[in-house]
Structures are given as structure tokens and as C-alpha cells.
Amino acid sequence: MSAVIQIPIDENEIISYNPATGKELGRVENTSAEEVKVAVENGRNAFQTWRKTSFSERRKLIMKAREIILAELDEIALLISHESGKPVAEALSMEIAPVLDLMQYFARNSEKLLKPRKIGIGLYGLLGRSSKIIYQPLGVVGIIPAWNYPFSIPLGETVMALMAGNTVVLKPSELTPLIGLKIGEICKKAGIPENIVQVVTGAGATGAALVEAVPDKIMFTGSVATGKKIAEAAAKNLTSAVLELGGKDPMIVFADANLELAAQGAVWGAFCNAGQSCSSVERLYVEESAAEKLTELIVTETKKLKVGIGTDENVSVGAMSSERQLNIVKDHVESFEKDGAKLLTGGKSDGLFFEPTVVVNANNSMRAMQEETFGPTLPIATFKTEEEAIKLANDSEFGLTASVWTKDSAKGKRVAERIEAGTVCVNEVLYTHGIGQTPWGGFKNSGRGRTHGIEGLMELVQPQHIHVNKLAILPNAWWMPYSKTAVETFRGFARYFASGSLFQTSKLSPQLTKRIKELLKKK
Ligand code: NDP
Questions:
Q1: What's the CA gap between 98 and 151, in Å, rounded?
Q2: Could you tell me if the CB of 230 is within 6 A of ligand 1?
Q3: Residue 63's pLDDT band (boundaries 50, 70, 90)?
Q4: Is the Cβ–Cβ distance between 216 and 137 less than 8 Å?
Q5: Distance (Å, rounded) from C-alpha 75 to C-alpha 86?
Q6: Other Cβ atoms within 10 Å of 75 Cβ, number
Q7: Which of 170, 260, 270, 418 could pair covalently with 281 via S-S, beta carbons 3.0-4.6 A apart?
């Protein structure tokens, strides 16, 4: 297998490598801060035209982009596998298929989801007023994704931003620039006009330059540390940012669960994408009486997994994306052993490949049960009661996703609602990022804001309140000049009108008439 590779970064270019083989895949421009600024300006100019396009025009372009992806399906899957190290199987199942679904959903439904909405304004309505909300696009959306889902995350966010009427400047990770550029190429081939989607390549500094260039929104996916830096830099210009950050997701397995299914779910949840998913199962808590059986099943399933180069269709666990990430995994496995946990299988690395590793006798006091690993490890701990399971699951700075496994659906839902996480699945694991209709985002240090779903779309627009007075013939009682009559009327507003009751408000009529007459006389 491969030798561990370093990513050299030149002042003018970055080199993309295949982490599985160490082979160079290509070189791309290291975009300067000045060029990033120009890209944001170009995006802002292009926004003036794009915002006026109809939903149907946008829909046609996104559906065209889908056709292009389908026409180049295998080529794109191969590129994702080559640049990220993941198996082609996962490029198809975890990136391309879900984002194609998201594309058709938002292409077809954004108009309905962003339909102007009338607001009931109670007694003000009786005074001839009406209110509605319309959703205005923001302008330029800066997208800064991580390298772990380098196609589906930035493309999904791009599609949602475009459907909402925004333009996009995307800065892919330095580890996956070719996939970022591929997104730009797909948009261009689909006929999306110039400067509506721009891709700027480079390392962290290019991402920082994008934040400094003051886009109208930042969609960031990455670590808590970088998320904090971005939040700080964005705050200087009051730029709002959605932050999709790390996770240490728990899986709770009760003794009454279907243990065979739970074991398979745990293995996929912990080892897919070589464990480099923000919603990977990173802590498994099993009810004590089922621990031995579940562990045995997990180890058996894990030993079936082939580790290797992702283009081999029988490979389940591909290469890790970088040496930095590999070193974190090694450190956590060592630290588990030092702290008294025991490895039942795995634990070794070869180049950037790390064996899927099952650890038992883990507990929450261990460092590796608290910090995000982001690699193919599955630590198992036990609990005795429902209450203890909830406490252990919530004992984390993170709260992205969680899962509860039981045949008792009332218990499943009861426990799910007490877990501090943005998504909690019952008898399911990890995959809901693939459902574009459902919101995605974390509690606690796992992030701020949402992507996907109506909640995600709302992050990409600003609500505008349009208020109309259809009876604009009389002055308002609360206008100037004030007087003794005015103050008495306002007392009545507080006592009667503010009750929301028509009957109470009717008591105010004589006073209101007096006040209006007073205002008319003063004209
Ligand atoms: P990083 O935080 O290192 O990087 C994320 C992105 O930010 C990359 O594009 C990176 O560029 C860029 N970047 C780095 N420094 C800056 C800066 N100062 N200003 C602006 N941009 C910057 O995260 P990783 O790429 O290592 O991703 C792994 C993390 O992402 C994990 O913690 C994982 O849990 C999280 N994640 C969260 C998801 C969620 O939905 N909640 C989904 C996927 C991942 P470059 O790579 O070129 O340095």
C-alpha cells in the first residue's frame, strides 16, 4: 500500500495527491487574497441579474447539471475516490446519489418552500392592515467545506444557494481541489452563467481571504477550531455564518434491540468513509447484559471488511485523507490502550490506511472518548440503566447526531428526545445527511445554524416583511402630537387592545373616536 505523503504547497499552486497511492493527480492555482476579493465582487455584480431569474429558469439549470453528473457518473465517482481515498462504492452511495436527490428536491420545491407567507396580525387586520413575508436572496454565499464529503456537501450547498437566488464563491479544501473545480465545471456545462458559481482554490489562507472579502453569508464545514476562527473573523463585518462542525456521536444499544442489525449498523456507522464522517459512530454504549453478544457480532462483521484502494469494488475501507488525520487516529488508539481499554481487532496502519479498530472497556473518562477521532475506530462502553445511557451520551462537548437501538419504539422516542444532538435516529444511523429534506446541524460545539431542509434554505435568504395599510385615510391614534386625550387612549390600548380580544377592544371605541377627531382637528 501507499507511503505516507505530505502535501507540499507552493506559493502559486497546490498539488493534489491520491492518498491511497501517493500519486500526483494535478496542480491547481493557489488563489491570492486579491483574486478572492475580485471573485466576491464579480459574484456580487452577477447577483443583480441572477436574483431576477425565475424559479423555473433556475430549476432548468440545476436539472441540467444533474443530467451532466449522470452522464459523467463513473468518471466523477472515480475522481472522488482518487482524490479523497474513499471507495468508489461510497463516492456513489454517500456522495453522488444523495446530492442528485437533493438537487431534484430543491430544484422542484424551492419555489414552494420560499412562497410569500401571509401573517395573521390579529386586531391590526381589522384596522385594514395586512402583512406578508417574502424571502429575499442574500447576495454572495461563500462556501468553505471540509475534505471528507468534497462533492456532496459543497454541491448541495451551492444548489440551495442558487435556488434561493444567490451567487456562490466556493473554496474547496486543499486536499480535494480537483473535486471543487469539477463542481464549477458541471455548473458551467449546465449553462449557469459566468460568475454565478466561482471556485477559488488554495489552502486555509484562501478560505480566510474569502471570509475577509465579506460575502453575504458563509457556509462553513470543518473543525471546531477553524469554525471559531471563522466566526471571529466574520463577526468583524457582522457576516452571518452557518458552522457545521465536529461530532463524537453516540450509539445507544439496549438489550432488547435487534443485535445483528445493530452490529451491522455500528460497523457501517463507525467505518464508512474510513470513519471520517462528522456523524460517525465514535462512542457505542451497550446495555451490560447484551455487551458480550453485540461485541462478538461487531468483531465478526469488522473482520469481514477489506481495506484497500477504493477503486477495488470489494474494498469497504479506503485510505484516510491525510497524514494529519492518520496521526490523530494513531494517537487515540494508543491513548485508549494506555488508559486501560482493549483492542479486539485492528489498530495497525500501512501508509494512509488504518485498519477498522474495535475497542472494548472504554469509558467516558478516557481522552479518546471525549475528543473527535475522525477515523475508523469503534470504542464500546457499557451501561446499566436508561438514565445512565442518556447521561453518558450527553457527556460530550459535541451534539451532532446520535442513535438509539431498541425494539420498544416508545422507549426509543423517549430516549431520543433527551439526547442533546441535532439529529437523533431510532434504529438507524448516520445517513440522514443524505436526506436533503431534513435539517442538518448540531447542538453544543457541533455547530450553529442548519443546512438542508426548509431550515437550511432559510439560512440562505432574508425574510422581508411587507406591511400594507389598505385604509390609509385617517391618521393613526398613536401619531403626534400627544395630549391628555392621547395618553388616555394609550392607556386604553394597554388595557383593552393589547388583550387581543375584540370584545375588550370594543370598549375603547369612544376614546379612539375622540382621539382621531382631535388629530383631524389639529391638521
Ligand atoms: P478544517 O477546519 O481544518 O478545514 C475546513 C475548511 O476550512 C477547509 O476547506 C480548510 O481549508 C478551511 N480553512 C482552514 N483554515 C481556515 C481559515 N483560517 N479560514 C477559513 N477557512 C479555513 O476541517 P477539516 O477539513 O479537517 O475537516 C474535518 C472536520 O470537519 C471534522 O471536525 C468534522 O467533524 C467536520 N465536519 C463537519 C460536518 C458537519 O456537517 N457538521 C461534515 C463534515 C465534516 P484547507 O483544507 O485547504 O486547509
A1: 10
A2: yes
A3: very high
A4: no
A5: 14
A6: 10
A7: 270
pLDDT of the residue at 215: 98
* C-beta separation of 232 from 384 below 8 A: no
Q: Is 144 in the pocket of ligand 1 (CB under 6 A)?
A: yes
Look at residue 473 and tell me whether its pLDDT is greater than 70.
yes
pLDDT at 523: 60
Instruction: Evaluate: CB of 205 within 6 angstroms of ligand 1.
Output: no
Gap between the Cα atoms of 415 and 6, Å rounded: 44
Mean pLDDT of 116-124: 96
Q: Indicate whether 1 pLDDT > 60.
A: no
For the residues 374-387, what does the mean pLDDT come to?
98
CATH number of 32-245+454-463: 3.40.605.10
Nearest CA to ligand 1 atom 48: 204
Q: Domain extents for the chain?
A: 32-245+454-463, 249-435, 474-521
The yes-or-no verdict on residue 26 having pLDDT over 70 is yes
Question: Looking at the predicted structure, is the pLDDT value of residue 9 above 90?
Answer: no
Class level of CATH domain 249-435: alpha beta
The yes-or-no verdict on residue 11 having pLDDT over 90 is: no
Does the pLDDT of residue 3 top 50, yes or no?
Answer: no
Distance (angstroms) between ligand 1 centre and the Cα of 148 equals 9
The residue ranges of DSSP E strands in 259-311, in sequence order, are 281-287
Return the residue whose CA atom lies nearest to atom 19 of ligand 1.
Answer: 208
Residue minimizing CA distance to atom 28 of ligand 1: 222
Whether 278 is catalytic is yes
CB of 275 shorter than 6 A to ligand 1: no
Q: Is 448 near ligand 1, meaning CB less than 6 Å away? A: no
Which residue among the candidates 83, 90, 174, 244 is catalytic per the annotation?
Answer: 244
d(CA 271, CA 302) in angstroms, rounded, equals 9
Q: Is the CB of 204 under 6 A from ligand 1?
A: yes
List the one residue out of 205, 212, 201, 143 whose CA is nearest residue 175: 201
Among 278, 355, 372, 459, the active-site one is 278
SS3 content of the chain, % helix, strand, coil (to 5): 45, 20, 35
Is 18 in contact with 83 (CB distance < 8 Å)?
A: yes
Q: What is the pLDDT of residues 346-364, one digit of tens each?
A: 999 999 999 999 999 999 9
Grid cell digits, residue 187? 455548473
Catalytic-residue membership of 244: yes
Taking the mean position of all CA atoms in its chain, how far away is CA 485? 55
pLDDT digits (tens, 9 = 90+) for 290-318: 999 999 999 999 999 999 999 999 999 99
pLDDT in tens, 233-284: 999 999 999 999 999 999 999 999 999 999 999 999 999 999 999 999 999 9
Atom of ligand 1 nearest to the CA of 400: 41
Atom of ligand 1 nearest to the CA of 227: 2
Residue nearest to ligand 1 atom 23, measured at CA: 222
